[in-house]
Amino acid sequence: MQEKRTRIAPSPTGIAHIGTAWQALFNLALARQSGGQFVIRIEDTDRKRFVPEAEALIYEGLAWLGIPYDEGGVKGGPFEPYHQSDRLDIYQEYAQKLIDNGWAYYCFATPEELEQMRKDQIARGELPRYDGRWRDADPAEVKKRLDNGDKHVIRLKVPKGRVIGWHDLIRGDVEFQSDLIDDQILMKSDGFPTYHLAVVIDDHLMQITHVLRGEEWISSTPKHLLLYEAFGWEPPEFAHMPLIRNTDKSKISKRKNDVSILSYREKGYLPEAVINFIALLGWSHPEGKEVFSLEEFLQVASLDRVQKTGPIFDVERLNWYNGYYIRKMVEEKGLAELGRKLMAYGFVDFDFPMDVLEEVLALVYERMVTLADFAELTDFFWHEVEVDPKLLLKKADATLVKMQLSLTKAFLETIAWKTENIEQAIRGLCEQKEYKKSQYFMMLRVAITGKTATPPLFETMAVIGHDEVLARINKAIKLVEGADAS
């Protein structure tokens, strides 16, 4: 099998995007299956949107997910440099070659001219595009402008009357009419290349064999194929992935959505869950599996199982995966591992009583969707609780509730503090006094935890401790007395 060299080429313009991780998975799989290499190249030529710290976030996000790479990034490699901003002399050299062989030309149209051109075309009902006014300009005029230092760009000279096509590894045969393709800018007036020139030069010089990217680049592929032709290079194979969409079918974007890789870490998602979830975006396991590891995905992933329509990013589905992997962690490695994970993620407060951490986790881990749920599910174990008197009196009057709390306290004061003893005392009181179970147990749960939904009541009381439970019952009695007096 031919070794495949694949790459992702993110732009450091802000966050580490979840879509970058998704595409990285498939690029990594193609490389691994063939014994090839997976490359990270940083496309940082858009200086207006450049964010200095963004590159580090990309590496950090991929590292958290456990997605490795072979070249580029901070590792370097045989095709350095891997930052486009360090390769400007290379792009300028190849742009000049395009000028020399007639595949590109200088354009001196000003922004004002281009804006007026656009307005006139719209007024005529035409598609706005560059009109080619410098395409066949007098060489003497071009030289004069260059000698004067006039601002200019370099544009691709798209041939007329041709059909440009390729076989897409996901979408099949795709064709474009060259007459509908604009003379794309290749070098901007600031001396930086556009994506179109830089990506072709870099992919060729870095020996990339397969280009996997989003479907928004389909219309740009004919321009790239023309550049490969102009340079006399063999193009790579292309595969255009569908765009990830929201449940309302709109495209996910950082303006509307939480698409940062690292934000999912901050929210308490496990990398295994995120990997499993995004792997199934627009792809299906050949055996129909819904749960599998990154290593298994890298072995079985193939582009022929990638759908053409945009997959839905369903957070509820991600939540299911995360809950599953939390439970799996406990089953395979024990509660101590979950405790270590919570502390590593910063979800255990510094004042938490660590001697009961595993006991608390045993009561709540099955209800956890994310690691961040731990605080809300357990805050009443060690924080002072706020009790709403209305909840205490929801199904009984103050006289009855005060009596129930007082008798409960008396029954609990002298018992050995174990779950089974607590349960025996409380159930015995309930039966002896013929209390309505739904009212009594809910009232007691609220008095001790401040909540209507908690882990099992008796186990919860055992962990909170004898003195604290009695103190909370006392507090509840006073609340009832105050409510009764008012």
| Assembly of the depicted chains | single chain
N-to-C SSE string, H for helix and E for strand:
EHEHEHEHHEEEEHEHEHHHHHHHHHHHHH
* CATH homologous superfamily grouping of the largest domain: HUPs
- Mass-distribution shape: elongated
Q: Got a strand count?
A: 10
The secondary structure category is mainly alpha
Overall number of structural domains: 4
What is the rounded distance between the termini? 83 Å
Q: Report the radius of gyration as a whole number of Å.
A: 32 Å
β-sheet strand percentage: 5-15%
Biggest sheet, spatial arrangement of strands: 1-2-3
Residues in helix, %:
40-55%
> Which architecture of the largest domain per CATH?
3-Layer(aba) Sandwich
Mean pLDDT: 94
Compose a concise summary of this entry.
The chain has 486 residues and is mainly alpha-helical. It contains 20 helices and ten strands.
